[in-house]
Write a structure and sequence with these properties.
This protein has about 110 residues and is mainly alpha-helical. The chain has helices spanning about 25-35, 40-45, 60-70, 75-85, 85-90, 105-110, and strands at about 1-5, 10. The relative contact order is 0.16. InterPro entries: Transposase_InsH_N (IPR008490).
């Protein structure tokens, strides 16, 4: 089925599951089984403002940094490009196909 977008562009509706496209023996699957960041948001809640522009999820930032460390991606700009392009990285970072990857400058500001 084709849908009409407001800008006049057409988009194909699809069903795509990232889980199905990350090999069972992938390094990030092993790390994901051990990495529990469920308390991170609550632990850092006092550092985030309830007003203003929404902040980047701290779990996403940590997961992206783990990808960078594991794969030797030293540049924050390059890390954002790689997470944007690589399905396994997106899966590990809990990003869907249409989710935006944070801007590289976000990492510099948060360091």
């Amino acid at each position: 089925m084709m849908g009409q977008l407001p800008s006049g562009q057409q988009r194909l509706f699809y069903s795509f599951n990232l889980e199905d496209h990350v090999p069972p023996q992938h390094l990030l699957r092993s790390i994901d089984q051990c990495l529990d960041l469920s308390d991170l948001r609550a632990h850092l809640a006092d550092f985030y403002s309830a007003i203003g522009r929404p902040s980047i999820d701290p779990e996403l930032m940590v997961r992206m940094l783990v990808v960078g460390y594991c794969y030797g991606i030293r540049s924050e700009r390059r890390l954002c490009e790689e997470v944007h392009l690589n399905l396994a990285y997106r899966w590990f970072c809990r990003l869907g196909l249409e989710d935006e990857v944070p801007n590289h400058s976000t990492f510099s500001k948060n360091r």
